[in-house]
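wait is this the right file?? whatever heres the structure
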């Protein structure tokens, strides 16, 4: 599913980025440009991030 239309970022891309060590929205934004254009993706991206962190039990 596309999360950020402006930059073509999917939930899979976010999950891979979290697996690679990006565990904060700031980190995801810096790497994938999430929220840097219209900003409409931020809420959904945060949900995907939180869900992934819960599944992998990663501590921030
Ligand atoms: S949808 Fe992500 S910045 Fe516009």
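ok assuming it is, sequence goes like this
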């Amino acid at each position: 599913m596309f999360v950020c239309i402006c930059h073509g970022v999917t939930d899979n891309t976010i999950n891979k980025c979290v697996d690679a060590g990006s565990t904060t929205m700031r980190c995801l934004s810096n790497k994938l440009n999430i929220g840097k254009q219209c900003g409409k993706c931020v809420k959904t991206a945060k949900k995907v991030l939180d869900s992934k962190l819960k599944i992998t039990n990663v501590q921030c």
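Residues 4-7, 34-41 surround FE2/S2 (inorganic) cluster (CB under 6 Å). so i think its the right one actually
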